[in-house]
Amino acid sequence: MCDTRADVLLPEARNPEGTQVINDRCFLQTQDGHRVVLVSRIPLAQYAVGGSMSEANVMVSLVELGWTDQNDVAEAFGYSVRTVRRHQERFAEGRLAALGHPNGYPSARARLEASTWS
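Below the sequence we write its predicted structure tokens.
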């Protein structure tokens, strides 16, 4: 005979929607176009999804501070390990500014028209 109380005592545990586990200490939580990176449940960084410079900085920080390794970061953020290494190299050479767009304003973004400046 099956005990029906087992379902109540041991419910299926799931991460909240929008949560990605990097490792046993690091998590990503994404909601409403924003992402929070948690290390031991303490916020390490917060940025808007699509902010490539911020995301690169977080990836470098997680590896450089020893919270996780390149493989886990690459998998969690959906990049190759080579991309994470490239971000680390750029950061080592030119700090945060080197993680930005090297050719100026991003080509995919629309610029404001001159009439809206005044």
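The chain has one domain: 17-99.
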